[in-house]
Design a protein that fits this description.
Strand content: under 5%
Number of helices: 24
Radius of gyration: 40 Å
Structural class: mainly alpha
Order of helices and strands: HHHHHHHHHHHHHHHHHHHHHHHH
Distance between the termini: 112 Å
Number of strands: 0
Helix content: over 70%
């Protein structure tokens, strides 16, 4: 095969491409505008924008082309570039009324009130019957006055009034990020973290590369006891800027705490109570970090874990301590009430145990654990007013039959008259042994 036969198709392709480029280069602005119209009819918005741009390259003085592209960009939500096009229209034709209207609306929407007011004044002068434009102009003027009151309100720390002013401003100028950030700050100072989260989240969507709001969101979620949500925001921060120092620092701290909490949750789930206690209450354990953080909900969760773990380990004093701390935050925490009642019963504080069981019963009337616990505490309370046979044998009132029998055998060996080697008289030893036998007989019959 000859080389010339291979080169011919290639040459034809090159010529076709050159021909296409030449054809494109000789298109008129009107042809591009016709193309744009066809693309718009077919819903091909990107192609239509490209055709408008090509037409502008051919005729940079045609303000109508800029306007048509600006309207399309505005429809697609590309407000910044639309604003640039409307400004170009007014540069070429200062009295273009629709460009004045659209730019005025956009300027007010982004918080540039003075410039927006000027545009709307010019527009309404020639269109006095446009009620919507007149209303927006009035609102913009009122907002300008309101904004002048903000420094005084802020200095006086009248946060509710600051929020009211900024809410009106944001409603009219929703694209202004600074107004939302100011309102988020006012919400935080007024103790409304959830509303602050709403504003900050919106800001991160409007300006994804802005790191400050993401850090703030992470810190707020940590304060609310939501470290996993906080970690998500810090990750987003690092995704945008992997070398951001503050985000890296927050990430390390939050990730460490999240992992530690997950270990506690796994230990509790697997009923590894001693491991859970160690993870929680070690010198550098989770509890120390949570206390330092001060997040109410997270503290309650960790207190409840500590309450449960100590109760399961039969450490009554510590169980009562952590259960009480849980109830200080949430007085109707059912688990804490039950575990504290059982711990108080083990400590022979039957009246207090019954009070906790009674309150727990009000919250859950069908819970058999609560019902039987109350009945047991009531029974032990009655017994405590009688002769304390448990005390004679040296066992708690919650002792099992096996524990009672073991205690009896040990005491019988020590106090039996035939084996006693102490300084008491034979009469006293017999009396002591009689008390031990009586106690064992009564308790072993229960």
């Amino acid at each position: 095969m000859r080389i010339s036969s291979l080169l011919f198709p290639l040459g034809a392709l090159v010529l076709d491409r050159v021909g296409f480029i030449l054809a494109e280069s000789v298109k008129t602005p009107q042809q591009y505008l016709n193309e744009a119209k066809v693309h718009l009819s077919a819903g091909r918005h990107s192609a239509a924008i490209e055709s408008f741009s090509n037409a502008i390259e051919k005729d940079e003085r045609n303000y109508n082309t800029y306007f048509r592209r600006g309207v399309l960009l505005l429809t697609l939500g590309k407000t910044d570039t639309a604003l640039t096009d409307f400004s170009k229209v007014l540069e070429l034709k200062p009295d273009h009324d629709q460009a004045l209207l659209q730019r005025g609306k956009l300027l007010i929407s982004e918080g540039s009130l003075e410039e927006g007011i000027q545009d709307l004044k010019k527009y309404t002068k020639s269109h006095p019957n446009d009620a919507e434009a007149a209303q927006l102009l009035t609102e913009a003027k009122e907002l300008g006055t309101l904004l002048k009151s903000l420094p005084t309100l802020t200095k006086s720390q009248k946060w509710t009034e600051v929020i009211d002013v900024l809410s009106r401003v944001v409603q009219t100028s929703p694209r202004n990020v600074d107004f939302r950030l100011q309102r988020a700050d006012a919400y935080l100072r007024n103790g409304d973290q959830e509303m602050a989260i709403g504003d900050l989240t919106r800001v991160t969507r409007m300006q994804p590369d802005r790191m400050g709001p993401r850090l703030q969101l992470a810190q707020i979620h940590m304060a609310l006891g939501e470290p996993e949500t906080a970690l998500t925001h810090v990750k987003e921060c690092l995704r945008s800027d992997p070398e951001h120092k503050e985000c890296k620092k927050e990430f390390r701290g939050i990730k460490k705490l999240v992992k530690a909490i997950q270990k506690v949750e796994v230990a509790v789930q697997k009923k590894k109570w001693r491991e859970a206690v160690n993870l929680l209450t070690a010198e550098d354990g989770v509890m120390a970090e949570v206390e330092k953080l001060g997040a109410k909900e997270l503290k309650k969760k960790m207190y409840e874990f500590a309450c449960q773990a100590h109760a399961e380990l039969k450490k009554s004093d510590k169980a009562m301590h952590w259960c009480s701390k849980t109830l200080d935050i949430d007085e109707n925490n059912l688990n804490a009430l039950i575990y504290r009642a059982e711990a108080k019963m083990a400590a022979e504080d039957y009246e207090a145990a019954m009070r906790d069981f009674q309150k727990a019963h009000e919250l859950d009337k069908q819970n058999q654990r609560i019902i039987s616990g109350f009945q047991k505490a009531q029974s032990l309370q009655r017994q405590s007013s009688q002769k304390n046979y448990y005390k004679v044998l040296g066992v708690p009132r919650t002792a099992t039959q096996r524990e009672i029998k073991k205690a009896y055998r040990k005491l019988a060996q020590e106090w039996h008259p035939d084996t006693y080697r102490g300084e008491l008289s034979e009469e006293d030893v017999v009396k002591k042994m009689s008390e031990i036998n009586e106690a064992y007989q009564v308790l072993s019959d229960e």
